[in-house]
Amino acid sequence: xxxxxxxxxxxxxxxxxxxxxxxxxxxxxxxxxxxxxxxxxxxxxxxxxxxxxxxxxxxxxxxxxxxxxxxxxxxxxxxxxxxxxxxxxxxxxxxxxxxxxxxxxxxxxxxxxxxxxxxxxxxxxxxxxxxxxxxxxxxxxxxxxxxxxxxxxxxxxxxxxxxxxxxxxxxxxxxxxxxxxxxxxxxxxxxxxxxxxxxxxxxxxxxxxxxxxxxxxxxxxxxxxxxxxxxxxxxxxxxxxxxxxxxxxxxxxxxxxxxxxxxxxxxxxxxxxxxxxxxxxxxxxxxxxxxxxxxxxxxxxxxxxxxxxxxxxxxxxxxxxxxxxxxxxxxxxxxxxxxxxxxxxxxxxxxxxxxxxxxxxxxxxxxxxxxxxxxxxxxxxxxxxxxxxxxxxxxxxxxxxxxxxxxxxxxxxxxxxxxxxxxxxxxxxxxxxxxxxxxxxxxxxxxxxxxxxxxxxxxxxxxxxxxxxxxxxxxxxxxxxxxxxxxxxxxx
Length: 492
Known about the structure:
With 492 residues, the protein is mainly α. The chain contains 24 helices and no strands. The longest helix is centred in the last third of the chain and has 27 residues, at 456-482. The radius of gyration is 23 Å and the shape is globular.
């Protein structure tokens, strides 16, 4: 990936569009050929661009709201402030783990091997609808491996298809590329909530006391979880295929003034003797071999089996090792990392403020009060729907599955224990429902938009369409499967 693409990531959705002529200025308004639902979605996107504040504002607002809630619940102002401040750095390990997911996904997606795979896949579809459906499918399949990988892979895939498939609607393809993060990412291996609950070192002690350790076999690999994921993938691909505009009504990449750029760029020529090791694969091979040796031992010696060894640290190390090997030369690997760093800024600065919210909730009586409230207004049968609704609504204001789960988990899981609802399925209810707002929330779109040279308003209309279809399906599945999974006591 070129250095220019790294700058595009930094510019994100607000950066200037490249290669545009004055004649394309009218594209900001929906054309008459667009369906009413698409126009409605674009109207919402235009509104949000004018009135939707930066996600950091929601994090700061959350601190204030929780403080006020604490006062209403008769908590001491001093205690709220002290418990919040004490927790400011409590999520540092988890924050770095989230950053490494983004970096790991980026370095793997930008390797020459993956780039060749993208070009090969781009040669398969022959029609615009087929191309958009294929983008949707691979966006979701790669998100089950890593949401960081999905964003970068899908963006590069759309850019390659825009060059090859004439008449492909660039907006619909961009919306399909974002489906991985908006539909099923949290049901896959980079699920922040599931990985956190399976990683004792990343879990705050107060949360561990409530839920104990919840291995991946009780979350991601439950049969209802696998069934839900499969249903959502099929449904999302079908909606993407049926909603794709025909070629005569499409707004292509060319209509946006976006020119084709090859995925790969060659390394510059080595000019200094001291750069020899930067261009040599020798150190890469030695270090990667050492890390592979360690990873094999981790899985081989895990007392609870290989799946129990797959926590956040192991998962991230696997991606870094694969990226190191596939880039082959340290120079190329470091360039990919440098290109990716701007996309991690929101995570780095916002998670400490989410930790303040967490500290005020669990360090005072707020968690117990909310747990009792959840228990009092729900039954064993209605509790899954309450969690799904609450998680989806909260996701509009806190667009981060990991940090939001840390805030929500103490009272949600405590109430689940009271109602004797399977704790692992509660995690999956959260995962399936909290991803819904991502379909229209621009926070995690930035890496994808930087590659596509679009703004959120250009693709969020298709996200809105998917959201309207997903909400009833997700809520029904969360409620249905909760009826058939027996409760298990916390594993201390």
